[in-house]
Recover the amino acids of this structure.
């Protein structure tokens, strides 16, 4: 027969016993990952120009890659590649982006990192980043821009085909392979190579997908590309952040672009909506895994709650029995209370160790929308730089930047962005010069931009009102407040 | 009491049973071609480059129109007319350089290779010799640089398929080669090499 005092003494050891039990329980499951992960640092550094000083804009990616290794290599290489393009270093961009592309193409089967990420106790974000289909496609797009500097345009076209294939990962067939910027640029590249028949095939595909898009003339040897807005955002929503959602982070204030060179003024047409590509992916296989993790956590929490109630009731019964001087019953009820408490705390720890959160790592330097225009230019003539103007929905110029130029044979690719991928100083302000040209050409009213904005809104079915301001976007969903169980067992003195 | 005690133990067992993880994906395999092996992706890889060039060398050397001539045929074999129409970024020189070098070694003088890639370099040197900037060297001066009888053309094509549901990817790659008579445009030899690879990414990437 045990005394109540003995029972109280026994209970003092409960936390220690519990800690050991839970430790043993968890050790039987998957490892929690990152500590054991093989790290191969310094890949980006190897890909940069040997014996050359690393540009300041690329240094953060070199350091990040050294720290994060393979896990974030694709993301770091993609962002570094885009930065290299901004620095007008297409060869560096080629090396970085082609390495990212090779990693994306790698099939992960029986991969330890992927196995870990499927475990209930490791977050999805532990896996090596390959990106969502729209991010993978944009690796191909930027690689095509970098490969344009090669005299042979085959690889640039291959990059765009790769990009298009990534878009076929959409679960909804309606939205599979609908990134029309890829066949548009490919068609223009075919024209550059003097292969008009193939170019026509590509432009037919563009017009089939979006009939309102104007395709380049066979003689257009200049392609102007403008990237506008901020990258789509990824939000983990749901009670346990297990659902991945996309948000348009751009405010939509800029709704049209113009390109100027000398006295020439061209209006850009929207060719791609990156947010649309992100948000029309449909369901993912990994969503089921995350839902399973969430369900596992729910079950563990429910067991913890049930066991806590069980422990409380047993403790009350033990109290009653002790009051009636029935020490046998009191001891048995107290034992059950301890067991219930052990299960409750153990389940609670298991629940807290479960990670159903969706991976929200994002390529944050992507644009929201892409605009294009084409024209013919004499490549031998002395050329002034092109500038890119950003206009609101009424056609009013907001600001302008000088564009980057890449040449290949008889063709020229001119590229500009609204938001810099790295330092703003990579994009020289050209607002005054651009305003002067637009003022002269438009005679005070640039109706062409406002008209094109209407056409774009029709082509891409987007409202003409500004999108939600970044501050109005839903913040990262916090899990709803959960009741944290506390087990207070009351025993008679 | 003992029955009640089993309840929490069952709960622990239930929790631990969820530690098992499903669907580990399938490793990449070759499909419908001779060679097999675990590879990283579904595109052209080093083993394909060696296999395709070895096959083409053997086939060209077994073509009497090319190698059994009274005078060794002159061939241009470079990447200038070798197109990549696939979805894979590739350095075409990997294929044509290996093909040319292995062919030159195996042909033992039955074929001669004209380097059009070096045309500017050769012209520059010839000019310097003839202008007296340099001496004539030890070789006999030729009236003109070598003309070619045949030129290699070719194409890399691919057909990609992907299942959005299962995440399975397949790529059929076809590499074609032709030798074109540079006088009459006739194709005197052609061959192709094809393979198909498939794989399935882990569910965590789908």
């Amino acid at each position: 027969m045990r005394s109540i005092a003995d029972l109280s003494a026994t209970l003092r050891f409960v936390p220690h016993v519990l800690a050991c039990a839970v430790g043993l329980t968890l050790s039987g499951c998957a490892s929690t990952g990152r500590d054991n992960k093989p790290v191969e640092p310094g890949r980006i550094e190897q890909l940069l120009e040997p014996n050359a000083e690393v540009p300041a804009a690329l240094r953060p990616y070199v350091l990040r890659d050294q720290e994060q290794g393979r896990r974030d290599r694709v993301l770091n290489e993609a962002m570094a590649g885009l930065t290299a393009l901004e620095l007008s270093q297409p060869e560096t961009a080629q090396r970085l982006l082609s390495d990212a592309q090779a990693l994306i193409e790698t099939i992960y089967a029986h991969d330890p990192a992927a196995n870990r990420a499927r475990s209930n106790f490791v977050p999805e974000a532990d896996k090596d980043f390959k990106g969502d289909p729209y991010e993978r496609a944009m690796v191909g797009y930027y690689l095509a821009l970098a490969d344009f500097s090669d005299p042979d345009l085959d690889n640039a076209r291959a990059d765009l085909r790769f990009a298009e294939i990534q878009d076929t990962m959409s679960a909804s067939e309606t939205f599979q392979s609908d990134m029309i910027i890829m066949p548009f640029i490919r068609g223009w590249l075919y024209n550059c190579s003097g292969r008009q028949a193939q170019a026509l095939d590509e432009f037919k595909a563009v017009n089939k997908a979006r009939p309102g898009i104007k395709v380049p003339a066979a003689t257009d040897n200049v392609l102007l590309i403008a990237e506008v807005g901020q990258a789509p955002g990824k939000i983990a929503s749901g009670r346990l952040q297990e659902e991945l959602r996309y948000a348009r982070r751009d405010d939509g204030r800029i709704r049209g672009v113009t390109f100027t060179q000398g006295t020439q003024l061209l209006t850009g047409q929207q060719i791609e909506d990156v947010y649309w590509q992100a948000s029309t992916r449909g369901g993912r296989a990994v969503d089921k895994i995350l839902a399973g993790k969430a369900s596992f956590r729910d079950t563990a929490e429910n067991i913890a709650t049930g066991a806590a109630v069980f422990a409380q009731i047993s403790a009350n019964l033990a109290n009653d029995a002790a009051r009636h001087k029935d020490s046998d019953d009191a001891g048995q009820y107290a034992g059950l209370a301890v067991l219930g408490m052990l299960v409750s705390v153990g389940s609670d720890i298991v629940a807290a160790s479960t990670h159903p959160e969706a991976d929200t790592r994002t390529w944050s330097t992507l644009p929201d929308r892409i605009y294009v225009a084409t024209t013919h230019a004499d490549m031998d003539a002395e050329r002034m730089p092109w500038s890119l103007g950003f206009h609101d929905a009424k056609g009013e110029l907001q600001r302008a930047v000088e564009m980057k130029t890449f040449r290949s044979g008889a063709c020229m690719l001119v590229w500009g962005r609204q938001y810099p991928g790295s330092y703003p100083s990579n994009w020289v302000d050209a607002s005054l010069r651009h305003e002067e040209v637009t003022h002269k050409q438009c005679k005070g009213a640039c109706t062409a931009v406002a008209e094109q904005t209407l056409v774009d809104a029709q082509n891409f079915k987007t409202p003409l009102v500004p999108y939600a301001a970044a501050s109005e976007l839903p913040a990262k969903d916090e899990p709803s407040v959960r009741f944290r169980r506390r087990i207070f067992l009351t025993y008679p003195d | 009491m003992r029955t009640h005690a089993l309840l929490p133990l069952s709960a622990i067992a239930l929790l631990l049973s969820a530690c098992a993880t499903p669907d580990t994906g399938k490793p990449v395999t070759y499909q419908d071609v001779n060679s097999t092996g675990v590879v990283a992706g579904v595109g052209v890889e080093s083993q394909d480059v060696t296999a395709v060039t070895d096959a083409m060398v053997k086939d060209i050397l077994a073509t009497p129109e090319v190698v059994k001539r009274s005078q060794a045929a002159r061939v241009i074999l470079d990447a200038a007319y070798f197109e990549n129409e696939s979805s894979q970024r590739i350095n075409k020189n990997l294929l044509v350089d290996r093909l040319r070098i292995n062919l030159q070694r195996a042909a033992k003088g039955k074929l001669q290779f004209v380097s059009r890639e070096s045309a500017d370099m050769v012209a520059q040197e010839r000019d310097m010799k003839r202008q007296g900037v340099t001496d004539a060297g030890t070789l006999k001066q030729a009236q003109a640089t070598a003309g070619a009888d045949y030129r290699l053309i070719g194409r890399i094509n691919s057909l990609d398929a992907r299942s959005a549901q299962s995440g399975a990817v397949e790529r059929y790659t076809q590499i074609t080669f032709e030798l074109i008579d540079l006088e009459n445009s006739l194709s005197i030899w052609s061959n192709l090499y094809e393979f198909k690879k498939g794989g399935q990414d882990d569910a965590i990437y789908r």
